[in-house]
Amino acid sequence: MATSRRDVDAMMALMREDAEFVPITAAMEGVEYCGHEGIRQFMKDLEEHWEFFETVQEEWRDLGDRVVATGYWHARGRASGVEMDRQPAVWLAYVRDGKIARWRTYTNVGEGLAAAGVDPPTPDDKRP
Questions:
Q1: Cα(39)–Cα(61) distance, integer angstroms
Q2: What is the DSSP string of the chain?
Q3: Is the per-residue pLDDT at 58 higher than 80?
Q4: Which residue from 44, 57, 35 is spatially nearest to 8, judged by alpha carbons?
């Protein structure tokens, strides 16, 4: 994923110029990044505060005007050295005109899937 690679150009190619972006770091702090300038700021903040920050998407669902992915993230704070491993995540992206108009990350899987309008998996669910 472009954020894991810290690839600003790849992020810009995916996002509308007026996109609203709420990555996990922003969601935890109640912050939202807006537009391409906001996304550039996010990437600078990511570099400044995180030694590494990797996202791993395990499942994707195309829901028409939105896409939801589930997986986890792995990160280590630059100043604290605290490492977080396999933290569950849901990424919800609303798509307009072929680009992401709004992207929000959730750490609560049930909350993220509910926001996407998707039922959470049951224990007998056979999805990979």
A1: 24
A2: -HHHHT-HHHHHHHEEEEEEEE-HHHHHHT--EEHHHHHHHHHHHHHHHEEEEEEEEEEEEE-SSEEEEEEEEEEEETTT--EEEEEEEEEEEEEETTEEEEEEEESSHHHHHHHHT-PPPPTT----
A3: yes
A4: 44
63-84 burial, b at 16+ Cβ within 10 Å, e below that, comes to: eeebbbbbbbbebeeeeeeeee
Average pLDDT over residues 46-64: 90
Tell me what the mean pLDDT of segment 11-25 comes to: 89
CA 81 to chain centre: 22
Distance of CA 32 to the CA centre of its chain: 12
Confidence category of residue 46, pLDDT binned at 50, 70, 90: confident
Give how far Cα 111 sits from Cα of 26, 51, 126, Å: 16, 28, 21
Question: Domains, the chain, ranges and CATH?
Answer: 2-112 (3.10.450.50)
